[in-house]
Amino acid sequence: SSRMQSWPQGRRGMGRRGRSSLVSASSSNEMEVSLIPCLSDNYAYLLHNSATGTIAIVDPSEAAPVRAELQMKNLGRIDYILNTHHHFDHIGGNIELKEEFGAKIIGPAADKERIPGIDEAYADGERFDMGGEEVVVLHTPGHTSGHCAFYLPRSAAVFTGDTLFSLGCGRLFEGTAAQMHESLNKISALPKETLVYCGHEYTQSNAKFALAVDSENGDLQKRNEEISQLRRKNTPTIPTTIGLETATNPFLRIKDENLRKNLGVKAGASD
Questions:
Q1: How far is CA 61 from CA 122, 156, 171, 268, in A?
Q2: What is the pLDDT of residues 40-71, one digit of tens each?
Q3: Catalytic: which of 90, 139, 147, 214?
Q4: Among 87, 111, 147, 214, which one carries the catalytic annotation?
Q5: Whether 87 is catalytic
Q6: I want to staple 107 with a disulfide (CB 3.0 to 4.6 A). Which of 31, 115, 127, 204 is the partner?
Q7: 181 counts as catalytic
Q8: Known catalytic membership, residue 89
Q9: pTM of the full predicted structure?
Q10: Residue 32's closest CA among 51, 8, 7?
């Protein structure tokens, strides 16, 4: 399928509750990423580096599903909690998990006043070491003014929160369309094989809009069929890849002539 074409850097398998594992081919490091469904349609993520034993949680909406995932995997620790932004459905489990496991909470510098329990804050382009895994922080305002994404170059993965979704992007609560455009450009410039882990399972509804404005896109038609099959089985559509999104996500294809024509964009109009 089109979704499986872009894994040159790793092998991936899906299991119960949508677990996905990535083995980086560029090093001896192994990073397993588990999708943890939270609330109605959120995803938190458990990152387990089996080489170092380091465990991180990205955007824990609530503590109970995270605790259940740890128990199921026989893991008894959380070293880091990474928050992409301050909305409750991304930080709701922070304090409970920090108190229980002593985890270090990391978030964007631009949002540090609004993230409960934060220990370290990083600005755009800054890097930190997460138990042997380099993490690059990308400032991605639009959905909120302080939003960030976490990029792990060694594992070829990016955690985009509510900025980039599969076939869509986040609502503008605090930022501008111009800021969101710049943020999406920043993320889409990552290597094509980069795995994209976003904050919600919105792909099927996003596909309806994408097809309405980009109906002649063969890659999108193929992706839509695949999404329908996955959701019929209640299987996650995440992760996607940068390569797949740049081919199918209308918010990353605004230079496409057919798309601009379908939207009635005047010739010479800015992106």
A1: 21, 24, 18, 43
A2: 999 999 999 989 999 999 999 999 999 999 99
A3: 90
A4: 87
A5: yes
A6: 115
A7: no
A8: yes
A9: 0.87
A10: 51
Entry field: residues in the chain = 271
Question: What is the rounded CA–CA span in Å between residue 62 and residue 42?
Answer: 10
Selecting among 59, 111, 162, 214, the annotated active-site residue is 162
**Residue 189, burial from CB neighbour count under 10 angstroms (0-12, 13-18, 19+):** exposed
Q: What tokens appear for 110 in the block?
A: 């631009």
- B/e letters for 236-270, b = 16+ CB within 10 Å, e = fewer, are bbbbbbbbbbebbbbbbbbeeeebbeeeeeeeeee
Q: To the nearest whole number, what is the mean pLDDT of the chain? A: 86
Q: Are strands 195-198 and 30-38 parallel, antiparallel or unpaired?
A: unpaired
183 within 8 A of 124, measured Cβ to Cβ? no
87: CB partners within 8 A, 6+ apart: 144, 162
Question: Per the residue annotation, which of 85, 86, 139, 147 is the catalytic one?
Answer: 85
Place of tokens 């985890």: 103
Active-site hit among 111, 139, 200, 214: 200
Q: What is the pLDDT of residues 126-185, one digit of tens each?
A: 999 999 899 999 999 988 999 999 999 999 999 999 999 999 998 889 999 999 999 999
> By three-state DSSP, how is residue 215 classified?
coil
Can 90 be counted among the known catalytic residues? yes
User: Helix 63-72 to helix 94-101 angle, to the nearest 10 degrees?
Assistant: 40
Q: In terms of Cα–Cα distance, which of 36, 39, 8 is closest to 23?
A: 8
